[in-house]
């Protein structure tokens, strides 16, 4: 068992909605850091409405993934964090790195679902995964993305308002990726 396992809040360890909640907490922490510059776990907890233990855990995870770092501070228990300072040519900006992390968590969650679907309650053993290829202009792709966002908006409000959730509701990952398919060359490599 690792230090993070011991320090992880009980409701954040092996729950079916774990990855989704982790993604949301980490996104909120990154947004807060972008807004205020530096923040401690206690300050983040007050601003975001989570426990300081939960915020501390996720701040350490973001640091482990290289997205944030400890900010210079005087000695003491306070441990302020800031977005990682990057040199212009070193690596992608934090929002791109977090996008990669989020997609990795999404993929990991999907693989976990596939491996453990038979353990879910019978009414939850199916999924609604689908994909399609459509020929779109960049403007049409943006319009499709906006339609999807608007369709999901009424359901996302329940994340913050638990009493608004219908009985039997569980967290469900809603993932949509719209991107152009790149052509392949005759030798099978991607064309730039």
From TrEMBL:
InterPro entries: ArsR-like_HTH, WH-like_DNA-bd_sf, WH_DNA-bd_sf. SUPFAM superfamilies: Winged helix' DNA-binding domain. Residues 74-85 have a biased composition (Basic residues). Pfam families: HTH_20. Residues 1-20, 71-98 are annotated as: Disordered. It comes from the Bacteria. This is Helix-turn-helix domain-containing protein. It comes from Streptomyces albipurpureus.
